[in-house]
Amino acid sequence: MPRRRILLPRPARSQVNRAELLLEYPFAAPPPPGEVREVAPGVHWLRMPLPFALDHINLWALEDGPGLALVDTGVGNDATRALWQQVFDGFVKGRPVTRVIATHLHPDHAGNAGWLTARFGAPLWMSQSDYLMAHAWSENTSGFSIDAMLAHLRRHGLAGDMFDGQASRGNAYRRSVPDFPRTYRRIIEGEELGIGGRKWRVIMGYGHAPEHASLYCSELGVLISGDMLLPRISTNISVNQVDPDANPLALFLGSLHRYTEVIGGDPLVADPLVADPLVLPSHGLPFRGMRERVGQLEAHHAARLEELEDACAEPRSPADVIGTLFRRKLDVHQTFFAMGESLAHLNYLMHAGRFVRREGADGVVRFVRAGSA
C-alpha cells in the first residue's frame, strides 16, 4: 500500500533521531460529510466538521446485530445534527441504535450524546470519571466554575487581551454540549464489549482526559484510538484548575507504552493484524504504524521538554513559555489549551526534579531550572 511521510518535529537543539518515520494510510481521503465508508468488516467511518482550527472529527458506526453502535458524536450544534440526519436518512435507514459510546467527555466527542440517546432510546456508555466531569463542566460545579478557571489562568501568568478573551467565553463547554444524559452505563479498563458478535477490549488512556476509552478488536486488527493516538498532531495534554499540581504528561506517555504492550506485545508477532493494527483516530486519516507513531510522540515531547529547559534558565510562567511550545499565533480558543499544555510540560519537569516552582509577590507561579538563579 502507498505510504505517506510524517516528519518528526525538529526542535532548535535536540539529539532526537530525525530520520523520517513512515506511516501507512490505507485510505487517501475521508468520506464526505454526511456519508459513510466501511474501513473494516462492520466498521464504518463518518466525518463531521468542527467550528475551530481543528476542523473535523472522525466518528465510527459499528454493526451490532440488526442495529448500530455509535462511537463518539460530534459537537452539539445544528450543522452537525443536520449531517447526522443525512446519515439517518441514508446509511442508517431505520435501523436501531443499540448504544452510544463516548471515548471521552470533550465536546467534539460527547456534544450530541444527549440528543442521540434521546432520539434512539439508546444508553450512553463511557468511563465514570469522564461522565461525572462532563456534568461538572456543564453545570459549573465541583471546582469547575468559570471564576475558578479564570483564577487558575491568572495565577499561571495569563493577562491582558488573552485573559479578557477567556473571561468573555463564558461556559464554552455547555454551548457545545447543550444537553447530557442523566444516566449512563460505565465502562472500565480491560472490559470486553460484545458488539456485533465481536469483542472490543476497552483500553483506558490517561493525560488527555480523566479516563479516555479506546476500543481494540483483535479479530479485526482494529484500534479505535480516539484522541490518544493521532497520526499528525499530538493530542492536547493539559492541567486544569481542580488539580494544578497534576502530571498528565507522565500519564499520557505511560498510556502510549500500554498500547504497544496490550496490542501484540511482541513486535515480532506473526499475525500482521495484531502486530500492526489499523488505527482509527479521531482526527486525521486511519493509519498503520502504531509503534512508529508512539516513538514519534515520545520524541516530540522529549524535544519540547528540552526546549523548556533552555527557556527557563530564568523563572518563567506557563504563559511566558507558550511561544516556546507553539510557534504560531494562537487565538483565544487555542490559548486556553496552550496554557494547559504549557503547565503540563512544566509540571512534568518539576515532578522529575529538573525544575523548581516559585510563586512571586504578584501571585504568579513561575518555574526555573533546578540549580538556576
Write the layout of secondary structure elements.
Blueprint: E1 3-6, E2 21-24, E3 37-40, E4 43-49, E5 56-64, E6 67-71, H1 78-92, E7 97-101, H2 107-110, H3 113-120, E8 124-126, H4 128-139, H5 146-155, H6 160-169, H7 172-176, E9 185-186, E10 192-195, E11 198-205, E12 212-217, E13 222-226, H8 248-262, H9 272-275, E14 278-281, H10 290-311, H11 322-325, H12 332-351, E15 355-359, E16 365-369
Parallel strand pairs: 6-7, 7-8, 8-9, 13-14
Antiparallel strand pairs: 1-2, 3-4, 4-5, 5-6, 10-11, 11-12, 12-13, 15-16
What tags apply to this protein structure?
single chain, 373 residues, alpha/beta, Metallo-beta-lactamase, Chain A, seven-stranded mixed beta sheet, five-stranded mixed beta sheet, 35% helix, globular, disordered N terminus
Descriptive notes:
It is built from twelve helices and 16 strands. Helix 6 crosses helix 12 and helix 8 runs antiparallel to helix 10. Helix 1 links the parallel strand 6 and strand 7. By secondary structure, the chain is α/β, with parallel strands linked by helices. It is 35% helix and 21% strand.
Write a short abstract of this structure.
Helix content is 35%, strand content 21%.
The total of beta strands comes to 16
Structural class: alpha/beta
Largest sheet composition: 7 strands, mixed
Number of domains: 1
Number of distinct helices: 12
Can you tell me the residue ranges where pLDDT is under 50 for at least 5 consecutive residues?
1-20, 266-270
Mean pLDDT: 91
What is the string of helix and strand elements?
Answer: EEEEEEHEHHEHHHHEEEEEHHEHHHEE
The side-by-side strand order for the widest beta sheet comes to 3-4-5-6-7-8-9
* Cα radius of gyration in angstroms: 21 Å
